[in-house]
Design brief:
With about 475 residues, this protein is α/β, with parallel strands linked by helices. The protein has 17 helices and 16 strands. A hairpin with a 3-residue loop joins strand 1 (about 65-70) and strand 2 (about 75). Helix 1 (about 15-30) packs across helix 3 (about 50-65) and helix 8 crosses helix 9 (about 195-205). The relative contact order is 0.13.
Length: about 475
Amino acid sequence: MTIWVPQLAESGIRYRNLAEAIADAIRRGELAPGAKLPPQRRLADRLQVTVGTVTRAYAEAERQGWVVARVGSGTYVRGAETSSGQDFLASRPVEAGIVDLSLSLPPPHPMRAATLGRVLREMADNDLVLQRAVEYQSDRGVAVHREQLAAWMTELGMPADAEALLVTQGGQHGISLALQALVRPGERIAADVLTYPGLISAARQAHLKVLGIPMDDQGMDMDALARLCAQQQPPRLIYVTPDQNNPTGTPLSESRRERLVALARQYDFWIVEDGVQYLPKAERGTPIYRLAPERTLFIFSTSKVLAGGLRIGTLLAPGMTRERLGATLRAQNWMVPPLMVEAVCRWVSSDDSRVLLDWLIQELGERQKMARDYLAGYAVSGRAHGNNLWLPLPEGLRSAELLEALARRDILVSSAEPFCVGSEPAPQALRLCLSAAPSREALARALETVAELLAEPPATPWRTL
């Protein structure tokens, strides 16, 4: 059988040359999305290099996001179903007839643009606001803004002290700040074995190793985490989304929250708690930053509550970390633009934000009920007022094939691949972002299509020879 064999540069480090050859072949289309790279030993023989050289090259190509390794299967060029976190988060243009359930966006509402327009007009007539907007500000944010954002978070059931807050450019920025300020390149962090792709991308950019911790219906397996800490050097940091795992929606039980805090204190690691995927207060558990305020950083954002394009968030941090976080933010972009922060603070201080939030909670509840009606009989999971629904596929169905079949019918969803940590094989499942549909009618069409395809008998595994 003919295998792909690149021409390597004569000079330079061999594994890096091979990693660059893989990237070049993918850019040119010589290696197509989904293509399997040659077995390491066979390619090493053809190139007359050691197997270790090929192994390091494949690992480097994976770190750069060109390929993905699957345990027991091999290494594959990333495709639509194995896209990197960066591709996963990129916005797509709205096209007639397409229902995009692949991105976790808040449901559309005309109040968002109307409210933003109102606060911008108010700001345009305020000389003090305009003057402040063109001046340099503190890296942590203007004090009055931090006070308003802390009051808003407290009103939402997430008590916050303005002195503990840093203003960020959204939740993703908060993750990057925490990783760069608290973890050194080459160190290890850990997360659920299925986790937010933005964390995976940020760790890759910071040259960190992400370890996947198994999970069950109570969230992260604390026994597995304890064994990891006891048998190896403990991770420097643990990333969790305790109220609803992204993508599965699974919450971390109260007992496991307490166990996580106990392990963090025993093995001296940081906890990054991501609360961006908003839930009503009644559906949230005890915040980990309240259980372990001395070692937990809490991330919040306006993206799922007001609008994703605002790019304003907060990072609640222990006192000992604030100077480091501020210095990291200052090195990146000096400060978050105060003009947009002012707009957000005026928005969250108005009755409009409360009206929109009440509507959002009701709308998400109705969409979750719709999804469970259409997909009755399947083992779906998700929170009653969450954005997402997790759909494990019946035996015999493969997510890549269903993804393609849905795309042919103008329905876009996500497979498990972008959420997988490390080289663990991805489960055959789909994540449906119910909130992203432009209307309930569009969502109903998408759900009906999903149900129809699930009901079709799986294709035969045999091929005509």
